[in-house]
Amino acid sequence: MTDTEKRLELCMQAVADRIPFKPRIALVLGSGLGAFADEIRKISEIPYGDIPHFPVSTVSGHDGRFIFGYAGDVPVVVMKGRVHYYEGYTMEDVVLPIRLMRRMGAEILFLTNAAGGLNKSFVPGDLMLITDQISSFVPSPLIGPNPESLGTRFPDMTGIYTRQLQELIKDAAAECGIGLREGVYIQFTGPNYESPAEIRMAAMLGADAVGMSTAVEAIAGRHAGFAICGISCITNMAAGISGQALSHDEVKENSARTAPAFRKLLWESIQKMAEE
Ligand code: HPA
Known about the structure:
Elements: H1 3-16, E1 25-29, E2 41-47, E3 65-71, E4 74-80, H2 91-103, E5 108-117, E6 127-134, H3 163-176, E7 180-187, H4 196-204, E8 209-211, H5 215-223, E9 227-237, H6 248-275
Parallel strand pairs: 1-4, 1-5, 5-9, 6-7, 7-8
Antiparallel strand pairs: 2-3, 3-4, 5-8, 6-9
The structure holds hypoxanthine.
Residues 114-116, 193-194, 210-212, 235-236, 238, 246, 251 line the site of hypoxanthine.
């Protein structure tokens, strides 16, 4: 057994008798988006700090716990708070929760985040369906030994974000009257926001939104066999686009402002996924 497998096994042992059901969907709630957890009928929760070997977030606005409950009739496990590479964790730490939720039996990984908008047609408060991603500026979470129990050595990244899930989310948005943008997410390491020159580069590369999470989780999720979908909440225009300086407070304020539409879209999307 590799160290990664051992850690995963220890985490699984620590949570096994506290998992009330096999979750269908694993949901990761980004900065300021944690309130969605209040919508579900909660059965139980596990603070990350209770799990030995589990990475615990240090960022304000990032509560850290797994919540198990039902969204309607759909059993879900929600990650309220994630850990980031910029906190000093290894990429293996960063994606351990994703692997653990796959071990719990979840089939769909629903990723959400707060992101800066690069696409000039976006405005703060927009929601963006993630259609693809660029992770070339952060290390792959799959670097290192690859025990086959975790996934294949060279996983395909064509269609990381499952087409069918994208269609369901678009239908849910249309039915709720919520405007939904679409685009490519690029991950940088953070914790500093990007420079305007970096943002111009990212835009030239085809990115529409920028953030400090998600892409590596999607890689590990794909490796682990999840069907994946993702939504970015555009909390600010990326550096140099509006001319305004960026602040974490602005990010938190705008994600809170978008929260009602975001919650509705998440809820309706999950209901549709359950019908499939
Ligand atoms: N850059 C990186 N991460 C972010 C941003 C941004 O502009 N906004 C929210 N998260």
